[in-house]
Give the backbone structure.
Amino acid sequence: MEHPILFISLILEGLGLPVPHGFVGHTFLEQLCAPYMTYTWLVMAFLIIVSKLTLGNLEMIPGKGQNFWEIVVGGMDNFFVDNMGREMTDQFFPMIATFGLYIAVANLIGLIPGFMSPTSSINTTLALTIIVWVTHHFIGFRAHGIKYYKHFMGPMWWLVPLMLPIELISNFARLLSLSIRLFGNIMAKETLLGILFMLAGFAFAPLPIMVLGVLVSLVQAMVFVLLTVVYFAQAAEHAH
Amino acid sequence: MSGAKNEWVQLLANYGHIGFTFVACIVIGMGGGILLDTKVFNGSTTPWFTFIGLAFGIAASFKTLFDILWRVNKDVKKEDD
């Protein structure tokens, strides 16, 4: 398959930095220059700069930029409150909303030629998932103390030998499914687009897949956020 | 976002991950069983922990499936009231 043209990698190569040609590099510098890392920084810079430009000074009567962000942030706030209550939303809104915005932008950026989605690398999605997974156990222990173990014990004491492995397996499955679903969907989109570009050239053949790509990108960001919210809410509520 | 569209996206998010979670549970259960058989007991118990892990994995996947269904039903009931 043809190598995708990633302009940041080309610039870094031009500057004489080692850009790995596989998925990850061997030395520390190569790992830092891997495409998914550089494009993660690009997405971060994009989010910071765009929000700074549009939200530089908050006004009572919102302009165009502030209106957009008020809809986005207000919509997410309503959604979180519906699913996990006011108190937890106030505590975890910055984290989950950042994840949602980052994943949405990172997914969508891969549709532009010359860019790649950082989320099409398992390293990015697994890192996000591990943060979410550890945080939901942290919330559980904070809300229930040591009694949090009752979440894994099933409804009755004589069911414990049966329910404990089942609950543990389904809990670890969250780690696997949350990371691999996002990674798989986005990588499939990128690979399919790459193959179509190679087969059909720059005719309009990849266009329908790009439309689907927009849908998949937004839905996957939405799924990640929704599941994060649900896991947090479940960890905080009482066991059975 | 409008109400109907919001609901549609939520349904997609809720049901869209059933398939993957189902598979992940079975993979983790069976993988744990194979790991116990080959690494911990060095093959002396060979088929047994694999099958037990597979059974637990399937049970766990059905449990997560019902969890999702019950949660969505609860949300729908709450909205109806």
In short: The interface with chain B takes residues 75, 79, 162, 165-167, 169-170, 172-174, 176-177, 180-181, 219, 222-223, 226-227, 230 of chain A (CB under 8 Å). Helices of chain A lie at 7-14, 28-32, 35-54, 64-109, 122-144, 160-200, 207-236. Residues 7-236 of chain A form one domain. Residues 129 and 175 of chain A are 6 Å apart (CA to CA).
